[in-house]
Structure formats: structure tokens, C-alpha cells
Design a protein that fits this description.
- The structure is a single chain.
- By secondary structure, the chain is of the alpha/beta class.
- It has a single domain, classed as NAD(P)-binding Rossmann-like Domain (Rossmann fold).
- 48% of the residues lie in helices and 15% in strands.
- It has a seven-stranded parallel β-sheet, sandwiched between helices.
- Helix 4 links the parallel strand 4 and strand 5.
- GO terms for molecular function: oxidoreductase activity.
- InterPro entries: KR_dom (IPR057326), NAD(P)-bd_dom_sf (IPR036291), Sc_DH/Rdtase_CS (IPR020904), SDR (IPR050259), SDR_fam (IPR002347).
- It comes from Sulfobacillus acidophilus.
Length: 250
């Protein structure tokens, strides 16, 4: 991956997003770490800068179109046209569907699905003008098979896959590919907050259900993302790949 690559990673301050941002930087891309955790993002940029990697942090409220637009404009101003977009930002809670309310459904859809649509809508014209682009949506195995206690989240992540497939057809002639990576259960700060600490028995039961008998680590998602984000992946578009320790075999 050459230094000509400019990559935006939403939700890039921690967890899978941070691992992706670091991997892209190590591959030579200039990376924009966008999200709603300014201190965490700035710390990640500082870490990467110490190794000589080019990175910048950008505050992003993915639920607001003006914030997305400002983030993309800042990217172009600092590094140039983005050639890679990683739609990774997400949010989740775990509770039975009948204990949830409309506001929670709308938040799940807005952050996990519509947020990615906002970012993609802003970036696509730039990629079209350049005649090249790689978009990778970080969906979830919950979006492929459904997950109890994560109904709205599963719906949003399934929508992210459908969005990816339909858009892949529309932009294929522009030199743009769009694919999805679906992490299975992965040890991240979010999983610790919403699952491991509040629902230890559920965490243990899910661990037993995974053929590899463990949760994944953020860095284990990287190979799939780098493959789809590479220039060599020129004949792959509209595809969905699970990274789940064998939990989902499709």
C-alpha cells in the first residue's frame, strides 16, 4: 500500500477501528481517525506519529451530515482525496427486544447504518472523480444470522450488508469496490462494557459456542480488511466475509 493512499476510519479511536487505523498506517497509508472520542483519537495519532506514520484525528458525529461533511473536507485539506473508506463506527446495547423502545431502534439504525451511508455519500463523488476507491463496511455476524438481545443492532448490520451489495453494483464502473467484513465475537472495549462485565454468563456461553472456544482479538480482523482495501483486490466487490472463529460458516 503506497503513501498515495488516504484512508478514513470511522470509530477509529479504539477496538477494531484502532487496529484497522494502525494497520493501514503501517502499510503506508495516510490515515484519518474519525470519531466521537477526541482524547482517545489524539492519543492514537500521537502513537502512530512516534513511528513516523502520517495520521490525523478528526472529531465526527456520524449522526449529523454537516459533521460528516466537515470531516471529509478536513481529510481532503490535509491529505487529499480519500481512496479508502472504512465504515467502522458502531453502537450497541444488549437487552430483549420487548424491553427496548423506538428511540433505541432509531439510534442503532442511525449510528450503525445511516451513519455509514452519510460517510459513503460524501466520499463517493471524490472517488468517482479520481476513478478509484475502496470502501469496506465493518458489519457483524449478527447481521448475517441474527443475535438474541441485539435485534436493532442485527437489523442495522444486516442493512449495512444490503447497502453494500446494492451500492457495489452502482459504482462498479467507476473503479470503486465496496465489500463487508463481519467480525464475530471480538474482545473490544465495547464488548467489555455491554457484554463481558454486565452479562458474564452470556459471555461464557457464547465463548463455548465458538468452535475456537475464544473471542477474537481486534488484530485478527485486519487481514480481511487489508485484502478488501488493497489495489490488488480489483475483482472483488459486493462480498461479505466473516471473521468469527468458525461461529458463522456461510
Amino acid at each position: 500500500m503506497a503513501m498515495t493512499e488516504v484512508a478514513i476510519v470511522t470509530g477509529g479511536g479504539r477496538g477494531i477501528g484502532a487496529a484497522i487505523a494502525e494497520a493501514l498506517a503501517r502499510e503506508g497509508a495516510r490515515v484519518v481517525i474519525a470519531g466521537n472520542m477526541p482524547d482517545v483519537q489524539e492519543q492514537k495519532v500521537l502513537e502512530l506519529s512516534r513511528f513516523g506514520y502520517a495520521a490525523m484525528a478528526c472529531v465526527l458525529d456520524i449522526t449529523r451530515f454537516d459533521s460528516v461533511s466537515a470531516m471529509v473536507n478536513a481529510t481532503v485539506s490535509r491529505f487529499g482525496t480519500p481512496s479508502i473508506l472504512i465504515n467502522n463506527a458502531g453502537a450497541d446495547t444488549i437487552k430483549p427486544f420487548m424491553d427496548t423502545h423506538e428511540a433505541e431502534w432509531l439510534e442503532a439504525l442511525d449510528v450503525n447504518l445511516v451513519g455509514a451511508m452519510r460517510c459513503t455519500h460524501q466520499v463517493i463523488p471524490l472517488m468517482q472523480a479520481a476513478g478509484y476507491g475502496r470502501i469496506v463496511n465493518i458489519s457483524s455476524d449478527a447481521g448475517r444470522v441474527g443475535a438474541s438481545g441485539q435485534v436493532a443492532y442485527s437489523a442495522a448490520k444486516a442493512g449495512l450488508i444490503g447497502f453494500m451489495k446494492a451500492l457495489a453494483r452502482e459504482v462498479v464502473s467507476d473503479g470503486i469496490t465496496i465489500n463487508a467484513v463481519c467480525p464475530g465475537p471480538t474482545n473490544t472495549p465495547l464488548v467489555e462494557e455491554i457484554l463481558q462485565r454486565p452479562h458474564p454468563q452470556l459471555y461464557q456461553a457464547l465463548t463455548r459456542a465458538i468452535p475456537m472456544k475464544r473471542f477474537g482479538q481486534p488484530h485478527e480482523v485486519i487481514p480481511a480488511v487489508l485484502m478488501f482495501a488493497s489495489r490488488e483486490a480489483s475483482y472483488m466487490t459486493g462480498q461479505t466475509l466473516s471473521v468469527s472463529g468458525g461461529l458463522t460458516m456461510i
